[in-house]
Design brief:
Shape of chain A: globular
Mean pLDDT of chain B: 85
Shape of chain B: elongated
Strand content of chain A: under 5%
Radius of gyration of chain A: 20 Å
Number of strands of chain A: 0
Strand content of chain B: over 45%
Oligomer: heterodimer
Structural class of chain A: mainly alpha
Number of domains of chain A: 1
Radius of gyration of chain B: 19 Å
Largest interface: A-B, 35 and 34 residues
Mean pLDDT of chain A: 85
Order of helices and strands of chain A: HHHHHHHHHHHHHHHHHH
Number of strands of chain B: 5
Helix content of chain A: over 70%
Distance between the termini of chain A: 45 Å
CATH superfamily of the largest domain in chain B: Nucleic acid-binding proteins
Low-confidence stretches of chain B: none
Structural class of chain B: alpha+beta
CATH architecture of the largest domain in chain B: Beta Barrel
Helix content of chain B: 10-25%
Number of helices of chain B: 1
Distance between the termini of chain B: 61 Å
Strand order of the largest sheet of chain B: 1-2-3-5-4
Order of helices and strands of chain B: HEEEEE
Low-confidence stretches of chain A: none
Chain lengths: 398, 116
Amino acid sequence: MLTLIIAIIAGIVAGTITGLIPGLHINLVAMLLFVSSAFFLQFTTPLVLACFIVAMAITQSFLDFVPAIFLGAPDEDTALSILPGHRFLLKGQGYGAIRLTSLGCLIGTIIACIIAPLFVVASPIFYPILAKAMAFILIGMYLLLILKEEKKILAIIIFFLSGILGIATLNFALIKQPLFPLFTGLFGSSLLIMSFMENTTIPKQNLEKIKISKKEIRTSSILSIISSSLVSFLPGIGAAQAATISSSLKKLNEKIFLVLLGMISTMTMILSFVALYAINKPRTGMAVFIGKLIPSLTINQLWTFLAIAIITAGIAFFLSLFFAKIMGKNITKIKYKWLCLGILIFLIILTPPVSGWMALLILGVATAIGILTSLFGVKKVHMMGSLLLPVIVYYLIH
Amino acid sequence: MQSKKLLKISLIVTFIGLFLIIILANCFEPKTTEISSIDKKILDEWVKVTGQVDNLKSISTESGYLTTFTITDSTGRIDVIFYKKINLTEKVEIIGKISEYQGKLQISASKIKILE
């Protein structure tokens, strides 16, 4: 019991650190844990290590929104597109925006745990039907994303550039942990460089709540259940794509979109653990590592994960508000540009030991594609072509 | 003005970089690895292994063919999976990624070259 409590606390600490540093993914920590699992297993069981991963994954889902909203906001007068979270930041409501995503994450955790038994029963029935047409379902999902995009041609260009980079990186024999330089470049360092280059003036932040009605929360909940359930079956599609697809089902205001984003973030993570048990397919990096630690997951182990997810979510909710408050109070005082530069240098230094020297080339190209996405004013979800295109090609070939 | 310059730089880095990555990915092969040195630490990493094939089986799955066999070198043996139907009775060179199935390490081969 004591080792389990230590594992949960360690998972929350690790999830907080990886969540607060953009580009530093939890996959890296899970991989380090897995590589050193022989050492840890002298003192504990695979279940305890898996519980660490669950706690880390849930915490990171909450904390991830803090840098995503407080960093990388473009200049509102010159930006081609602006994310809902950044729009709130530029109105001085960054804290309120984090509160909405955190509320979404918390409700998403509860909903995922409630629908988990249904998912356990239904998945083995529906998955074989979906699996037969997987490539076409993924192509269909992407077409939905394209239909939502105003700049369709530019979005398709970004999708294919990211996709070609993804295929080349995943097949590059000299790159270890290929997803690290790929995602760090696409979603981390490009955001940091844009923040460094922009002359954005972040206004003084107020620490007030943004009010949201029960009806708006109900709308987000229904949409998140539909999209997260579907996404949990599909490889290469993540929370951001699910949120964009949801918003194509119904016109959403920015408050609902942020709550929805939070809900989907934790729901897809939790349902990926359920999918690991129900269909034996890992659909997130975290589920991959849990599957490696526990090759045959039992139903009792799954319930343990869900219980840990709820406990962790309760703590992570307050942690994300705590760090959002710190950021909100200090964002105008800290040297914003130098903070971004510092994190960027840290990520560049981290890349060779994790993935090899050649990974710097991947990092550079991925960063350039990330910057192009911002400059073109297309949504970042199209960069998920880096995973989606290799997956589609795989299913078409096999 | 600054964003135009950044756009130009990003376009150049993207296209030249992608071209370089594709060339390098096709030029570089992993170093030949002895089977005994394969362990969990190199999980998901690429390896090149040379050895003798045995226990070859090809089965039809929902998504196509799956060939499984064992490769043996002077230091040990390891299971190999390959997502195509292939007939091998000779010494081969395999390039693939180390994966784990039911707690056992295996090579998911992407290239197989018959040596003799």
